[in-house]
Specification:
By secondary structure, the chain is an alpha/beta fold. It is 32% helix and 22% strand. A five-stranded parallel beta sheet has the order 2-1-3-4-5, with helices on both faces. A hairpin with a 2-residue loop joins strand 10 and strand 11. Helix 7 runs parallel beside helix 8 and helix 11 runs parallel beside helix 12. It is globular and about 60 Å long.
Length: 441
């Protein structure tokens, strides 16, 4: 029997790129290819690159170089693929280069350099496709691209303008994932709250009903499928208020990932951020009135060109007042091709370092205070890892997304499996994590 050709895969960048990798793998698996866990066993290596920041480009070029050294036969895809000249200049021997979410081009490049071997005995691909995440959660991509033109960002140049998927297609995919054992859906896109605006919120038939391609409608439908639904990359447009009501009803997880990036009006204006003129503090207070359990995670940039000491102090005060549960921070770095490079007022690196340390200290204090309010409560958690030798499991609450937020460390955890959703009582907390024991029945 012919041996299935083997492909190695290196996937860099964000969850959106991970979904691209999963789609490519699913297509190739269906065509008879198999996958190798190491360079040595692969006939060819695919590198799915990131090209958002200059440091990410460097990391992608290094990953391509490593794959060439270890294997020699490399196909490049993903966001850095739009800069073919840069890749060819650094690594002239790559076999082929394609851009982001160009699945057909990647697959056809693989066919050119490693033809499939027909084999009817190959395992059938699961209906839900192949996933790079654990079995119990999955990323659900609802759109590509972005209509915003933030001055520090080149994503629209890389991935194009917003292109939304019909609601029926997304809901069908979600159902398939849940049937295959997924218990948590992580909704992702470049701008989740803008979902459907490009297709004028067109309706599509789902289970005999018309469902609009609209953020609220989609969130409500997903929330009725029986899995946890977590919303990422939500800009605070006014219609987000309605979705908070779904969280209060328990249909959608009380969690919002909002990339605020800053709070000072001067910096936000310079960044050309959408929805920056909103009275955001008032709205956050209103959201928490509607859904007291709401957790907000966000990212902030310090050291943006022109950021003054006053701007930075404003941001720190805002962070405390808004009680941002989970805050990530980036030191501004120029991105080739981004309008922000033309701005005056470059902030020195040592000032960026100081501001980064200060912001993370404030964020830690806020996180500790918010988590301390959960001690004594009984909550549901989803289990990501089991450590029988320690008699404990590592889990997440409804307020924690995988890999970016905190954890719930559950002791006395006999007989609990990965993917279980269990009820625990919170006994303690530190800056980022909760400690708990199984709830007494």
């Amino acid at each position: 029997m012919n041996q299935a050709p083997k492909i190695g895969l290196v996937s860099l960048g964000c969850p959106k790129a991970l979904v691209d990798s999963e789609r490519i793998m699913t297509t190739l698996r269906a065509q008879g290819y198999s996958f190798s866990r190491d360079y040595a066993g692969a006939d060819i290596v695919l590198v799915n690159t990131c090209g958002f920041l200059d440091s990410a480009k460097q990391e992608s070029l290094e990953a391509i170089g490593e794959a060439l050294n270890e294997n020699g036969r490399v196909i490049v895809t993903g966001c850095l693929g739009v800069e073919e000249g840069l890749i060819r200049e650094t690594h002239p021997s790559v076999l082929a280069i394609t851009g982001p979410h160009q699945y057909e081009s990647v697959v056809s490049a693989v066919h050119d350099h490693l033809p499939p071997v027909p084999n009817r005995f190959v395992d059938l691909v699961p209906e839900s496709g192949l996933k790079l995440t654990p079995r119990h959660y999955a990323y659900l991509k609802i759109s590509e691209g972005c209509n915003n033109r933030c001055s520090f960002c080149i994503i629209p140049q890389i991935r194009g303008d917003l292109v939304s998927r019909p609601a029926a297609g997304i809901l069908g995919e979600a159902e398939g994932l849940i049937r295959s054992g997924v218990k948590e859906l992580l909704v992702i896109s470049q701008d989740t709250s803008a979902y459907g605006v490009d297709i004028k919120y067109a309706e599509s038939k789902y289970r005999g009903r018309d469902v609009k391609a609209k953020f609220y409608d989609l969130a409500k439908e997903l929330g009725q499928l029986g899995a946890w639904t977590r919303l990422h990359y939500v800009y605070p447009y006014p219609h987000v208020d309605q979705v908070i009501e779904l969280m209060a009803e328990g249909l959608v997880l009380p969690y919002l990932d909002i990339p605020f990036q800053h709070a000072s009006p001067n910096v936000l204006k310079s960044m050309r951020r959408p929805a920056n003129q909103e009275k955001t503090l008032d709205r956050i207070k209103k959201w928490r009135d509607i859904c007291p359990d709401l957790a907000i995670r966000s990212n902030f940039i310090v050291g943006y060109p022109g950021e003054t000491e006053e701007d930075f102090e404003f941001l720190l005060d805002w962070l405390e007042e808004a009680e941002i549960d989970r805050a990530g921070c980036f030191k501004y770095e120029p991105v080739t091709g981004a309008p922000a490079n033309e701005l005056d007022g470059i902030v020195p690196d040592e000032v960026k370092e100081e501001r980064f340390a200060q912001l993370m200290e404030v964020a830690q204090d806020v996180s500790f205070h918010r988590l301390s309010q959960k001690v004594g409560r009984t909550i549901d958690v989803i289990v990501d890892d089991v450590r029988p030798e320690e008699n404990r499991v590592i889990a997440r609450s409804k307020w924690d997304a995988p890999e970016i937020d905190g954890q719930v460390i559950v002791s006395k955890a006999d007989g609990i499996k990965i993917g279980d959703i269990v009820s625990v009582t919170v006994t303690d907390n530190d800056e980022y994590d909760l400690f708990a024991e199984p709830a007494a029945h």
